[in-house]
O-acyltransferase WSD1 C-terminal domain-containing protein
Amino acid sequence: MANDFIGYLPKNLIQNFFTTGAVSTFTFSNLPGVPATTTFQHVLRDIIFITPNFGKCGLGFSMITYRDTLSFGLIVDKTLIPQKQAAQDLLDDVLEEIRMMYDQFKRNM
């Protein structure tokens, strides 16, 4: 499966990844978060979940839900994706794929 997945990645990303010797980290949380929580008598508005960026972490992707909202996090070594907009585009593409899967799921119900 990993070999099939690599075929979908951009060529320059794969080349940079293997020439830098970076280690990729993939974190995925699919557990539903709590509806809301309070701390110091205040409702927490938002939480984030990001992968730790230590060692030779080339890419970290995370997802978490809180208060019925799905949030994404992305940490990328600049040698892999040097432009912030390219990283944002990657997250936007992931979100669009999830929307399309959800729409298809609703149609098939």
About this structure: The beta strands are 38-39, 42-43, 59-66, 69-76. The chain has one domain: 2-107. Residues 84-107 form the longest helix (24 residues).
